[in-house]
Design brief:
globular
């Protein structure tokens, strides 16, 4: 499955415990990553400073559902 443009659910719903550029303590679940743009794309997507956890995340229907709202629900439920 290709990552859906205009989604960004993984950049909000998931907890990231590793350091992110500008977020040295990572981010808790439900907090928007500072690199998530208004169109829900990642401003550091092709940047080598993008954390490994983000690079390793692969969009799959099991986690991303059929739309952004379903992705938020599924991914947030995995973070709690």
């Amino acid at each position: 499955m290709e990552c859906r443009s205009g989604c960004g659910a993984c950049c909000i719903a998931l907890s990231i415990s590793s350091e992110l550029p500008g977020m040295p303590d990572g981010k808790p679940a439900g907090v928007r990553c500072i690199h998530l743009l208004d169109d829900y794309s990642c401003s550091i997507y092709n940047d080598p400073s993008k954390p490994k956890v983000c690079t390793d995340f692969t969009a799959e229907r099991e986690f991303c559902g059929s739309d952004r709202e379903e992705a938020m629900t599924i991914l947030f439920s995995l973070s709690i």
